[in-house]
Protein 1
Amino acid sequence: MKKRGNLSRRKWLEQVSVPPLAASLGAGLFGAGTVEVAAQQPSCPDVNDKTLGARVYNVRDFGAQGDGARLDTLSVQAAIDACTKDRGGTVLVPAGDFVVGTLELKSNVTLHLAAQGRLLGSPKSEDYKAGNGIPPGNGNIVMISAANAENVSIEGPGTIDGNGAKFFTGKGDMTGPGQNSSEGYFQRPHLLIFYRCKNLAIRDVFLTASAYHCTRILQCSRVYLDGVRIYNRVNLNNDGFHINSSEYVHIVNCDVACQDDACALFGSNKFVTVTNCTFSTRWSIFRFGGGEAENITISNCVIYDTYGCVIKMRCGARSRFENITFSNLIMKNVTGPISIGLDSTRRNSSSSNPNPQPTVKGIVRNIAFNGIRATVIAEGKQHSDLPWPQKFRPGETRSCIVINGVGDDILEKISFQDIHVTYEGGGTAEESNAVVPKLAGEYFEIGTPPAYGIYARNVRGLTLNNVRLELVKSDLRPAVVFDNVADSALNGLSAQGDQKADSVFRFNSTRDVLLTATRVLTPAATLLKLVGSANSGITIDGGDLSKVAKPLAFSGGATAKAVKLRV
């Protein structure tokens, strides 16, 4: 110690490592200082300085007040810029409410929010602008963004609060079916936008009250979202995570309660994992749309109080969804719960284009659902913490699992393994005979489906293994309706029936289907009703049909030749 005491201050600093959050030593000790001190630093820092890239830049040292009133945008940005200039480090948001407009994060910068530190969005729209380097149409105005940056992190137990209630007008972006987006409300800031960033990490932070989407991740690579808590229910279009055409994305240990899509996966997302998370929303949890989404696993998640469609996949022309699995999911008090649609004709033609290109058909294949337990309610409810009334369309009531191809589009190799769903029921005989329109847009556009459990149209290679479909109250719709389904296997399917319903299962234009170990759980009039002359190659092998009055019924030209009954 005596020898160390004889060292100069500079020599001593060269011999010790600097803790990454040594705020007590902080900017004053390591040269960040006030704005004026930072400006006096050399433009080329000493490369032998062991603190280079590991310094802490306290935003208060750059003039930020944190009093919840004064605008601190310039001071916080000055801390970020100084950190970047010194080859990175940590920008510290200490205890306090720091009101900011648009901020830009940069390469090698970690934004650390202390437990009582909060970045609070300004209530004034003039304090925001589009994110630097983010293409128009992707970013809109934003609170915090980064573009073409590497090694960017947001961490800590503090809060980023978008103050989004100040931007509430009762109007959304009008991008839904039948809406005119030119009338949408877009001039409100997203909370976070990252564009073409590499090695992006968001950990442990609380994100809340965005005026628009909460976290938009666009064309990024190596993304880690860990322990993030999102509470986003103050405005319309309050998404949680919105991932677009990114790869190597990992979402773990997150808790998301929002108003719109909780974990949207748009475009060509690849190599994505989502695990150990909880979700709740008015609309959808996992939403897929457009692009080439592949090699994605979603597991070990709890979904609750979701009154739209838990898993919503919409594939159109020139898109492909492939090699996607959902496993070990709990769904409590949801509607939906799963809707997969393939329609290559939807929005593909344009009257303004006199020479449209030939349609490149969409592809949906190799999608697996394993280990799902769900309770499905008949109608959505009002979330007590949403300050405006929620409206539910007729097609959102008494929904079920839907696998829906349109025209000559065929979904391939869809499997359900170890699935137990309890539906509220209440379906009518009229609903059981409803004609499903030939479209596959939003889940509610097809109306209330004609099955209470599973409706499948234009599917090849559908497998149901150990699937149990139960009801809380009577439902006069079949448990399962197949329309133009081929090469399908149903093993160990257990379902409730109703003596007043036509049948437990109904097949139309369905062929090469094997049913084994089928169980009807409650008294029913008929096991299987075949509709139309195009049914063929259907085998019923074994099972417990003791509660069924008769095994088969035929209509529309269907005959007993289409079925081999071995019980």
Note: The longest strand covers residues 454-471.
Protein 2
Amino acid sequence: MNQINTDIIIAGGGLAGMSLALQLLNRNDDLSITIIEKNTFPVHDTTAKVGESTVEIGAHYFTDVLGLDAHFKEKHLRKYGLRLFFGKVDGDYSEYDELGVSELFGIPAYQIERGTLENYLYTLLTEKGVTFFDGAVPAGIDLGDKKQTVLCHHKDGETQITGRWLVDAAGRQALLRNKLNLQTETGHKGNAVFFRVKKRVIIDEWSDNPAWQNRVKEPGKRWLSTNHLMGPGYWVWIIPLASGATSFGIVMDDKALADSNIETFEDTMAWLAKEHPLCAKAIEKAELLDFKVMRDYSYGCKQMFSESGWAMTGEAGAFADPFYSPGSDFIALNNTFITHLIERDMKGQDIRFEAALFHKFYDSFFENTLSIYKDQYGGFGDRKMMSVKLVWDYTYYWGVFALLFFSDAIGDLDIMRKITPNLLKTQKLNKKMQMLLSERAQKRQVLPAKGGFMDQFLVPCLGELNDVLKNPDIDVEQALEKNIAIMQKIVPYFEEMLQDNASANIDDEERAILGDYRLSVLA
């Protein structure tokens, strides 16, 4: 049996594991890293993995933190925001209610061709001296104090790999989570059906109404959005890929799934033909590339990082929900915490306090993210609820999570200590808003479609929050104070808007913060 000694063993050579390796090497190119991956490189460009859409934190991580900006601009599609369609209409698609942006705020996000990115990372890391065992599986794991051992089965036999650190990035194989019995229930029930077709689906072609086409500053760019078709208890994603393929997913709560009777691809197409006929027609003759069903996909984790020298990242640890595409955000968050821990440990520092604190930070981020989804799927077909929800969730995401990540405050314990009281204020505000949204979601309302457009680009506070992230020298304490003031002002307005008898009257202060958004939502 062959034996290898290395600094860091990463089990899982997908997006989470390889991006961690690159982040570590960017900060210390003397580290020796060994990656174990069950697939064999190169993988197919349009690989059967979810997580093709990024939002601001994940995109910033890949392009700025990892230095992959040129690759993303050349090989992946720039995302044209998140776009939602509501109602049930027999006629022209312009008759649906639309929630989205007329133009982009500025911080870029991307639609990722996962196989293309992972092949690029594989080549880059190989050139940097990373040892890969692809087509391999961990057959046994022994954990020690800064001495981890993995027995690896691969095409050439067996190799015993020993390292100071072991990071589980092997996704739902959950190597460490299962071994250490760390999985927890989240209380959020979600189910997904997802597939890809070998066809570029252009949602802009679903209506030739000139007014509808001209709602967006660059007509014809809707298809570059992460487009969502919304209904009570479910949403359908449509994500374009650079290869020309299109990714689809139907995500449902238990009630919607039971009502749908979906189990196979044929069932899926029958359901789409009934609920979203234009979507079904757009893909009925396209070649099917893959199809998967995932039930009860949400889970948590008791401990993500250990001072003994093990950690988890990506879906190996926890997973909340795919709405808002947070997967790459949590890769960015976990990998940054792990990088800080390994960096300090390799310098001989005691990391017991940091390991516990970073998990506490992570757990807080995860719980607040989970609250965005829990008990709210019933309202996903409700135009009014979702119009309020998206602006609030963006406000909280850009004003808190993205602020902390873009400024790298999450790795600075002194800053995090100083701002903890204000972070608790934001959590309290978010808890109140999510409770209000959950209460409305129980009604499972679907309002009659009016062909309206709720343009989030015209919400002044969103532009302001996004602009702050463009500043490379963000004063985190000052920015957070200002963002809290915005949140405190908009919560009462949103609470009123969620009422069925809400008035369309707005005052000067509300107009300064939200523009005329209330009018477009309540019209």
Note: The chain is about 40% helix and 20% strand.
Protein 3
Amino acid sequence: MASAPSAAPAGRWFVRGDVDGFFGLFIDNLLQLMLIAALCPVVCGLPRELVYGKILPGAAVSILVGNLFYAWQARRLMRQTGRTDVTALPYGINTVSLLAFIFLIMGPIYQETGNATLAWQAGLLACLLNGLMEIVCAFFGDWVRRHTPRAALLSSLAGIAITFIAMGFVFQVFASPIIALLPMLLILFTYASRARLPFGLPGGFVAVLVGVGLAWLLRALGQPFFEPSTEAYRLGFHPPIPVPGDLFALLTSATGWQYLSVIFPMGLFNVVGSLQNLESAEAAGDRFETRPSLLVNGVCSVVAAFLGSAFPTTIYIGHPGWKAMGARAGYSILNGVVISLLCLVGGMPLVLQLVPLEAALGILLWIGLIITAQAFQEVPKQHALAVGLGLIPALASWALVLIETTLRVTGSSLLAAAPQFKGDLYIHGVIALSQGFMLSSMVLAALLVQVIDRRFIQAALWAGIAALLSLTGLIHAYDLTATGVQNKFGLAAAPDFAVIYALGACFLLGLHFNMRKTTPGPPHAA
């Protein structure tokens, strides 16, 4: 009888909710491809032939293989549990790593040397090392999940969701309300109410269709609310081509390895992010095995680097959002196939000429709201304080992005402007809190969970971890240079933070021994 669930049918490969899920995940992936196409030539000097001929085809293979695996993984869980409501893990190019590699590795190398090929090769090395880190960490990821409170794993994810996913795109929506606001409202109305539309039409599809219709109607009437991309396109086949020579060109050179201060935390960021996303999926009802999930993450990034892509792929944030839409396994297959075809045939410029992205950004707002709500809903009520604390580092990181963007637009730099902020904005506090924000979010939230539950020994251990991370520079440490904020690694990288966290650990140990005389239970929220 125990083996009966494994023989249960997994249901249909495609359901109606997969269409909604596909639109959301497709737009999310498409945004990353747009950033690559727009930023690489400008910031890194990469010729468009390299972007469309090597980087995107290499990414296509990684995206396709990963999406197919996670769809198969969801189907396998359906058969094992006898359920038909399992949702595949979303998958694609990591936004934070993408921006970090462009602005902190490839861009600076190009600015220093004027050599775009060298900048691309450094990106390949960074992508390779990120993949290898995930492969190694796959073998002890389960241990981390078992010993880290759920509030710690979900709160930093919620911080990213409400800032980097939701807020930036909300600004874009309200900057173009005539074509973007109505689709966003339609998405919120249909998804939040779970109302069924006439003819069973998916809400996301209807919202995007309305946005596209409005944009082209207004354009036909001579209103300048939508300007299609003017980039020329030539449909053709761009097969992925192995580039082992370029991939290994910098293995024995200091050029690529000098950016290990960016590569290492980004690899760690991807690993931690994957664990958080797995925890988020489990909180939504779908528990996937950690080791194979991380292994596929790592292997696909290694393959992407070998085929010319400088950007790692990873499990995406947003599983509960896709699940709430009714997506199952089919949306992942559709996303992998369509995104890969766009990359392989050079069709992205054509898509950008037809579909205004503003029409689909409401889907990303929905995902951000779902993830943020989950962080509070799926933890014990008394741990909500810890979730709130865990949001703060991501808010600081996002604030730093806004500050740096503002300064760059005005022709200034953070190095020049930092002394002028004085007491109006404690910019050094913003920077320190933003450095390693995913790790500091986890550690601070986990520490507070243990304090709330009066497990002071465990809390002291988390404070000790914070001290060690500060001491080695994985959190809070930085150097402010002419090119921006740089990570700072080494012994005593952030000694002031390390000392304070260590003193906090000592205080917690004192509380433990002081409380041994009495044994009150954990406090309960009123």
Note: The longest strand covers residues 478-481.
